[in-house]
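This section describes the prediction task in plain terms. A model, or a person checking by hand, is given the sequence of a single protein chain and must write out its three-dimensional structure as a string of tokens. No templates, partner chains or ligands are provided. The sample shown here is typical of the held-out split.
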Amino acid sequence: MDRILRMIMRRLVNKGVDSGIKAMARRGKTGEDTEQDRELERRGRQNSKNLRQASRVIKRINRF
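The expected answer:
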């Protein structure tokens, strides 16, 4: 029973971390786009992609 609860809690926490990373990547968007804004968005998407990959690796390590 304890294993099942830990598994469910781990999944919920992991989903929360993923949604938090996505929310931080989307924060502060406006309708006006300049070249500088697009570059910042691209970097933000790239950073969030890297964070998601890192969190996946950490999740995989924590399984053991």
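For orientation: Helices lie at 2-26, 35-62.
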